[in-house]
Amino acid sequence: MTNADAYAKMMRDMMGSMPMDTSAFQNAFKSQAAMMERMTKIALEAAEKSTEVSTHWTKETLAKAGEVASTKEDPADYSQAMTEFATAQAQITSEHVAAFAEIAKKLQMETIELLMAAGKDAQEEVSAAVKKTTDTATETAKSAAAKAPASKPTGTK
User: Fold this and answer.
1) In a domain, 93, yes or no
2) Whose CB has fewer CB within 10 Å in the chain, the N or C terminal residue?
3) Could you tell me which of 125, 135, 61, 118 has the C-alpha nearest to residue 91?
4) Interacting residues of 55 by C-beta distance below 8 A, sequence separation 6+
5) Residue 11 domain-assigned?
6) By C-alpha distance, which of 76, 60, 78 is closest to 68?
């Protein structure tokens, strides 16, 4: 086996005698790619909605800050403006945190649904692969048994 060509031929023959069905790998790759596409869409949608909430919150805060920064006639008006700003910020904050919570809740539910569906699909694929392998092994064993010569009882006189 010192000849490289002989070694390559032996390896080709050996690999050829063990055919491999690559469709399982291809199907797994396609399933994984499809799941990642759906997962990415879910994440991007959540990011978009989160950005909208954040932008709205920022705009409201800046508008209220502008009111606080305006010149007042009476020094007590500054205190009143700060109090109103703080009250408005507390209300705005609770509304926007609730909006973020809704986005997170939706993201979590969609992710769980996607993972549950992927798990179910994977279980079905594994069951089909096991059945196919079992059928092939049974067929091979029957074929080998049919080809084997009948054995003679040993030790009989």
Assistant:
1) yes
2) C
3) 61
4) none
5) no
6) 78
Q: Which residues contact 78 (CB under 8 A, 6 or more apart)?
A: 72
pTM: 0.62
How sure is the predictor about 15, in pLDDT bands with cuts at 50, 70 and 90? confident
**Predicted confidence (pLDDT) per residue in 112-133, tens digit:** 999 898 888 878 877 887 788 7
* Closest C-alpha to 99, from 131, 60, 137: 60
Distance between CA 153 and CA 156 in Å, rounded? 7
- Whether residue 37 is contained in a domain is answered as no
Which residues are within 8 A (CB) of 70 and not within 5 positions of it... i.e. 6 or more apart? Answer: 81
The two structure tokens encoding residue 84: 């109103």
Indicate the length of the chain as a whole number.
157
Torsion, Cα of 135, 136, 138, 142 (10° steps): 130
Q: How far apart are CA 132 and CA 129, in angstroms?
A: 5
22 DSSP assignment = T
- Hey, what amino acid is at 93? T
- What is the span of the domain harbouring residue 116? 42-132
